[in-house]
Amino acid sequence: MKIKIDKKVLLVVGIVIFAIVLGSLARTYAQQVREQSDLRASLQSQQNLLRTLSKEKENWEEKREQAESLLNSSQAKFPQSVESIEYGEDLFEIAQDCNLDLTGLFPSKPVDKKVGSVTYSISTFVIKVEGNVDDILDFIYALRTGDDFRLPWSADLKAVNIDIGGGEQPEATITVDIYGYKR
Prior knowledge:
The chain has 183 residues and is α+β, with helices and mostly antiparallel strands. Helices cover 55% and strands 26% of the residues.
């Protein structure tokens, strides 16, 4: 049994199939156009974000450089060595033992000096003290002899300036090199 299909039916079926295929292609094309549009919008927003982040990165880099510069300049003002703080503690204690007010303590950055196989750390301190003249002289003597030092260091007095008049109490400005043994 042979079924004969009319040409009109075949034409209608062909048009329907063609319409379905064309509709599917149109729908797929529309989806791709929408996805492309979304991707362009996403790409544009990502590029804007990239520009913003690049500017922020430049700003942060500039701030970091400024902070490093400030840190370096601040570090240059203060001695790197912990011994300076420890020496300062000894100097305050010696001043207190001598009944003096230590009003100023200005350390320099320590330098290393090697003598033979031994390395010494040398720091220059400018010390300002107030009190009576006898106590100031006791303080100078304590620095010269090193009897009150808790740490293994010695002092070499470079200059002493005692101002007796003008203020309520005599004031002395003492410049001293402190030699500390480095292990």
